[in-house]
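Predict structure. Chain length: 331.
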Amino acid sequence: MESGKLPFPAMNVILKAAAESTRLRLLMLISEAELTVSDLTAILRQSQPRLSRHLRLLTEAGLVQRHREGSWAFFGLGERGSAADIARALIARLDPGDPVIARDRERLAAVRAARAAAAQNYFRRHAAEWDRIRKLHVADIAVEEAIRAALGTQPIRSLLDLGTGTGRMLELFGADIERGLGLDLSLDMLALARARLDRAGLKNCSVRHTDIYDLALPRDSFDAVIIHQVLHFLDDSARAIREAARVLRPGGRLLIVDFAPHDLEFLRDEHAHRRLGFAAETVTLWLEAAGLHLVRQENLAPGPEGKIAVSLWLAADSRIAIAAPTNREVA
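Prediction complete.
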């Protein structure tokens, strides 16, 4: 059988799964972002059991992938394979101006806006104590040493810190770079970051208010990009990674630091965490889809009082190969 070709029974299953109005609407919505059943219930105004049955059929056909995280399950389009290609082809043929699709997308925008507002309210309440909250879950010294080690092999002229928070990453590298830029959606965080940079005397670093999904920056702008403890707050991590890859110069490097998978559900309710960590393979797939190749992946075990491990992914722009073997290690 030719590569990418499907036998008749498999193709029949895929087309049957997609050939129903609610399931086709689900495919369109899931193509926009990974969503939970609760999200989809709010958008489609149908019962949770009904939507769960539809999602099961789509998952069994390979059109949709299901990711369990604690008590939540996220649904997204399949990453690879013929079924995933068919799903994307079907979605591409849909008319975005169709009234049903337009209404669903409006409701999706409302759901996402509500989540973003909840996260912003959290940041506003906790901006002044953000570094202290991080220390409850992350061994800062060990993580920063690992970040230094990962990026320390090559000079960095320009550094972009996405979701800069209080500006700690700019402070960490500020003396070693020509230009540093931190971006964040929280005005309260940016105020703290500016104060930190002023105290450190880092006139070569600045911060700016912008959306991580839509960077007002030209392509090929930075030697290195850092996304430090940000992805678990986001609705669409893969999209943020693609945007980060867009602004990397040829041969530039992207460093992602975030939690490994864990089961601390209270972080969702009390600290606005959208995701309970990430499997190494998940982030690696997102990096590859963004045109980057993995250089290093490392897991840092928590200390005696900690409960969450931290993972690091270092990837490079594939337009210029970096002569470094992929290094997978657990510290």
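Summary: The chain has 13 helices and ten strands.
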